[in-house]
Recover the amino acids of this structure.
């Protein structure tokens, strides 16, 4: 507890060391140092002591960082998170460090100002999406929280712009499946469109994850900091860890495959998918958009959002609580049957069209 003393006036007074100021003395050609104290005065002794103690605690928490440059601090932050965050996240952080910090990287943390950050953000925003700028600034913000806890920088980030993405239709998916029939890519598309499963989850799937008509999603492939695909023995998020009931025709397509269901890497899946889209004459959309297709179809069938999120592994913490603590098994079974019936009907239509030489056209 800081020491207080009573002044002749009867009030109580306490001083707490704040910091040391350095000024250059041209005559001595050296730095002069002056200790600076924060003063607290009042007629209530306990109140003065409490305010002084609070300042002392906050001063330690908000201690100015050592002389370290922004780029060095970011590297230290990345090193501290390596092995804690996913390899893909670390790889993204390293990319930001090496490509986007030229304007602020050499500034010492203790000298960094809101104006420095705002000018950097303004330059960064030219030719880049708001999401990219926000992701880059997110790393800087996390670094500042680690090395300068309690610090406050006032900056404005670009507003997010909603992307207009093409969501494939039933006819698009049927046409695509006809084009890739009998290939490994067909299996990947079935799992993505009727799961829905992510690319990395599909490539990590093994025969051990298939039980009856269920697929267990419990791992995934991600790119590490060296840009190599590595198996992560946990899915993207907690909510991604799930069991999906698949239609019979999807299970029939993968039954009998031993080991990894898909031998290709996620990158190879995307390359093959893009070629298939091009040669089938379909409007351009991404492999990941097959997940959007599945969600949109389920939504159109009036499947409640909580079941769609549980099936696809989409969730915030609040959504997760709604799903995993509120799901009723009878209701889940009813909606699963509804989902299976729709996708099985789509499959039957496709088989009929293939047998009768009917092609999907726009």
């Amino acid at each position: 507890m800081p020491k207080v003393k009573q002044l002749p006036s009867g009030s109580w007074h306490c001083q707490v060391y704040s910091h040391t100021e350095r000024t250059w003395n041209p005559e001595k050609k050296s730095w002069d140092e002056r200790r600076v104290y924060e003063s607290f005065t009042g007629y209530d002794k306990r109140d003065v002591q409490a305010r002084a103690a609070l300042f002392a605690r906050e001063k330690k928490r908000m201690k100015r960082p050592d002389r370290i440059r922004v780029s060095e601090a970011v590297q230290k932050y990345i090193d501290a998170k390596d092995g804690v965050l996913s390899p893909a996240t670390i790889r993204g952080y390293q990319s930001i460090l090496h490509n986007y910090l030229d304007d602020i990287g050499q500034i010492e943390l203790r000298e960094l100002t809101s104006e420095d950050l705002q000018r950097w953000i303004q330059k960064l925003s030219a030719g880049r999406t708001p999401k990219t700028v926000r992701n880059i600034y997110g790393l800087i913000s996390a670094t500042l929280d680690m090395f300068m806890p309690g610090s406050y920088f006032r900056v404005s980030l670009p507003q997010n712009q909603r992307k207009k993405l093409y969501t494939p239709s039933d006819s698009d998916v049927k046409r695509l499946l006809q084009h890739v029939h009998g290939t490994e890519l067909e299996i990947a598309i079935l799992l993505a469109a009727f799961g829905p499963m992510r690319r990395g989850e599909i490539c990590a799937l093994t025969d051990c994850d298939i039980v009856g008509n269920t697929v267990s999603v419990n791992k995934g492939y991600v790119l590490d900091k060296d840009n190599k695909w590595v198996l992560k023995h946990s899915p993207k998020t907690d909510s991604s860890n799930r069991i999906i009931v698949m239609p019979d025709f999807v299970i029939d397509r993968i039954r009998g495959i031993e080991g990894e269901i898909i031998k290709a890497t996620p990158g190879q899946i995307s390359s093959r998918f893009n070629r298939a889209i091009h040669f089938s004459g379909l409007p351009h959309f991404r492999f990941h958009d097959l997940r959007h297709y599945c969600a949109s179809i389920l939504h159109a069938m009036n499947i409640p959002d909580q079941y769609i999120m549980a099936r696809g592994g989409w969730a915030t913490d609040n959504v997760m609580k709604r799903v995993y603590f509120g799901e009723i098994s009878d209701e889940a079974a009813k909606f699963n049957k509804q989902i299976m019936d729709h996708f099985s009907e789509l499959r039957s239509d496709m088989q009929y069209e293939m047998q009768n030489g009917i092609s999907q056209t726009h």
User: Anything to note?
Assistant: The two ends are 79 Å apart (CA to CA).
